[in-house]
């Protein structure tokens, strides 16, 4: 009986001290991610809210499909495609594949793919800024 109490106490202590890695779980990225911040390559070029050039969001579905929608100057543009995720040393990356060319694709390569990555647990960021595109950050 004494050994059982020690074992339970030991398991309780160590299970309550688990380390939070900050990584989002595999189901946490489903749903709507809304653009909250844009930045350019120049200092102090950050904009948020209604001051941004456009408003947009991604909607990630559990079946590996997504929708991207942008409202710019009152014109709404929407496109859908498929996505996959991959765990890298610095976090989770998303590869979005579009069925055809669109002005909504924010890519360094000019192909039908777009890449995003998770910052911490609650911010999705575009890799477009790596090649002089705008820095785009999304929140769920």
Structure at a glance:
With 140 residues, the protein is mainly beta. The protein has one domain: Calycin beta-barrel core domain (Lipocalin). It contains one helix and nine strands.
Structural descriptors:
single chain, 140 residues, mainly beta, Lipocalin, 1 helix, 9 strands, signal
What's the rounded overall pLDDT mean?
83
Total domain units? 1
Oligomer designation? single chain
Strand order of the largest sheet: 1-3-4-5-6-7-8-9
Structural class: mainly beta
* Unreliable spans: 2-25
- Which sequence of SSEs, written as H and E, runs from N to C? HEEEEEEEEE
Q: What integer value in Å does the Rg equal?
A: 20 Å
CATH hierarchy: architecture: Beta Barrel
Question: CA-to-CA gap between the ends?
Answer: 49 Å
Number of helices: 1
Approximate helicity band:
10-25%
Global shape: globular
Strand content: 35-45%
Do you know the CATH topology?
Lipocalin
Number of strands: 9
Largest sheet: 8 strands, antiparallel, barrel
CATH class: Mainly Beta
The CATH superfamily bears the name: Calycin beta-barrel core domain
Protein name: Lipocalin-like domain-containing protein
Keywords: Signal
Organism: Flavobacterium xinjiangense
Signal peptide: 1-18
Task: Describe this protein's structure.
β7 and β8 form a beta hairpin. This protein has a single domain, classed as Lipocalin. The longest helix has 14 residues. An 8-stranded antiparallel β-barrel has the order 1-3-4-5-6-7-8-9. The protein has 1 helix and 9 strands. The chain has about 140 residues and is mainly beta.
């Amino acid at each position: 009986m004494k050994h059982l109490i020690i074992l339970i106490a030991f398991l309780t202590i160590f299970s309550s001290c688990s380390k939070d890695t900050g990584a989002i779980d595999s189901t946490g990225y489903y749903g709507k991610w809304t653009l909250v911040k844009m930045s350019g390559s120049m200092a102090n070029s950050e904009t948020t809210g209604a001051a941004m050039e456009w408003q947009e969001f991604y909607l990630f579905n559990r079946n590996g499909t997504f929708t991207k929608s942008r409202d710019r100057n009152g014109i709404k543009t929407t496109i859908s495609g498929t996505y996959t995720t991959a765990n890298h040393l610095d976090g989770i990356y998303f590869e979005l594949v579009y069925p055809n060319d669109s002005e909504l694709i924010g890519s360094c390569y000019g192909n039908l793919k777009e890449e995003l990555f998770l910052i911490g647990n609650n911010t999705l960021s575009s890799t477009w800024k790596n090649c002089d595109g705008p820095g785009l950050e999304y929140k769920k």
